[in-house]
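User: Show me an example of a complex going from sequences to structure tokens.

Assistant: Sure. Here are the input components:
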Amino acid sequence: MTAPKPSEIAFLPFVSVQNMMRMVNTMGAAAFMRDLAGYIEADFRRWPEFDKTPRVASHSQDGVIELMPTADSENYGFKYVNGHPKNLRDGFQTVTAFGVLSSVANGYPVLLTEMTVLTALRTAATSALVGKYLAPKGSDTMTMIGNGAQCEFQAIAFRELCGVNRLRLYDVDPKATEKAARNLAAQGFEIVKCTSAESATEGAQIVTTCTADKQNATVLTDNMVGAGIHINAIGGDCPGKTELHRDILMRSDIFVEYPEQTRIEGEIQQLAPDHPVTELWKVMAGDAPGRRSDRQITLFDSVGFAIEDFSALRYVHAKVRAGAPHDRLDMLADPDDPRDLFGMLERAR
Amino acid sequence: MTAPKPSEIAFLPFVSVQNMMRMVNTMGAAAFMRDLAGYIEADFRRWPEFDKTPRVASHSQDGVIELMPTADSENYGFKYVNGHPKNLRDGFQTVTAFGVLSSVANGYPVLLTEMTVLTALRTAATSALVGKYLAPKGSDTMTMIGNGAQCEFQAIAFRELCGVNRLRLYDVDPKATEKAARNLAAQGFEIVKCTSAESATEGAQIVTTCTADKQNATVLTDNMVGAGIHINAIGGDCPGKTELHRDILMRSDIFVEYPEQTRIEGEIQQLAPDHPVTELWKVMAGDAPGRRSDRQITLFDSVGFAIEDFSALRYVHAKVRAGAPHDRLDMLADPDDPRDLFGMLERAR
């Protein structure tokens, strides 16, 4: 007697890193992030429909491992993601991630995908989407402080969604700036490599901060931020990790994803717990204003929220269903009689 | 230029359903559960070392999807598991599961495995391990009320760890009893098929209840439980789902995995929140008594806790490292320079 073969419902579509890169490169990172931003925008606009909870974090001496679940009435999604700043030294990445999308109706997973590359894309797509609502009209120049793994994705997304084509780069490690400048020059950006954060901020309408050190740093000081700027603050994303001087926050109108999480993890952990912030979903739904004047300083205090990952999972799942390259995993047991799990095991002998 | 191949650290060992069944069948389910019970016992004895949290549940109309994380200083593990009672009608399983074990030091996953089969094995291994501490010495007869997917695993584990070889089976659906009786007769058990729960409890030292209906049911009533019995109550495992009449609980000494979770999900949701219970890890560590007399009624109010899944993940990971069959997934991006994720994407074109 031969072992029973798993049936169709037992196979789970799996997008490997290679297949994710193939999926992105087939259409180009810019188009991928533009379409993904459309999914994120659609999900932000129906924000009240989601089952939301702060991420579930397990902290250790050297880092954190987090599960980020959310659900609407049709799908459940979660992301596993770690953050280990010391990993770089040992040749590992600071952040790796994968995610699962499931059917709420029967609880079966419908997609498993790498999310290390996908998270980089969704983070940049979210930033640029927010920039579309908050950055000054006609912005063409962006300062980028912190030129690590996220830098190029941010630049490309901001060009695609906001029209940025000039970049002023700075990193405490000149090698990181060299790497980003090389990659982005090949993408057709006009680039200025700067030797200080202060000089990097000159003449830019948008300032992106994306540094990795887990500490209360001061990447931007008050004198570096002029009127009318949009600040896209990516790096301050866990307790004890911030990038901006408090005085900047006091001069800015602050926009956040999910206040319950941002008040713990974002730049605003430096402020009183009732400091006014605007929820981005309300801006996108037309229920709250975005940028109101040329002189206003807007700040996106980004920490990353589960709904952005949910949108990314939905988008990749749609592409897989439309034929994007993927493998199929035998991860879900499927006995002929669901009550006869033991019989399935016996017949497999 | 060819696409770069993922390096060793980018590959994640994956145990499919087929490979899990192969792993179990190579040594036999009884030996697998005996060894697994050893891992569970070792982890229960060092209970205070674990980072514990109640599971993170997402409830919907037809079921629930849960994430169950836990960690010690070396490993982090979590299980994804759903519970959808209506699935049976549509030919899907009530419960499917998978799990991940990771390194706390760098956050990288080290194992992805199916856990539908593995959860059945760890649940039975835990019950029988607890039976070793609480069931009357010389127990040879077990009542089994509810003859679904978990039934055979329970019987085999109780024979391996406690010496049970006579079974009295009852299910509201005679077809379920037929299925279990057929499977278990082939395993050499002496079997009596019973036509009522009451007759099923006659002459047994151990009573296992394992039914699936999501309601406050009364599978056992007070008159059916005599002195000296050990009750292994598996099925009452979420809010609004219980199996035992409250009067039985009042006559029993109650043993639980993790009180914070059991008081919400277990049989004791029927009792006052300060009703005395004994934590099983203390019994296994020698810090609290197990069975104290021949007349005592002991009750294991089982709901399943993350540490049992952690033990199962550790056990399977040890077997994979020792050469057990598995696949390798390209799930973790591994750029040559961890800061150059974009360069990796570009070189893959």
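The lines above are the inputs; the final block is the predicted structure for all two components together. Chain A has a mean pLDDT of 93.
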